[in-house]
Amino acid sequence: xxxxxxxxxxxxxxxxxxxxxxxxxxxxxxxxxxxxxxxxxxxxxxxxxxxxxxxxxxxxxxxxxxxxxxxxxxxxxxxxxxxxxxxxxxxxx
Length: 93
Fold this sequence. Notes:
Layout: H1 9-27, H2 32-37, H3 42-52, H4 57-65, H5 70-76, H6 80-85
Helix pairs in contact: 1-4
């Protein structure tokens, strides 16, 4: 450790949870720009806070590691409805 530098375990935890949420959003095909703009950014902030306090983060990480289908993530994730509202639009055939 460098002189004067401090290690903040809580900060590390926050960044890990944010990375986890980003992976879930990718797996669930969320349009991240739409999600960030929804309700002026407050919806995304609320989703981040929900993810940060989620007691299921270990199960979530495990499901991602095992490449589970997005339907299994939806069953687990308290942010699933927000993510569903922000899914990328698919062109109709």
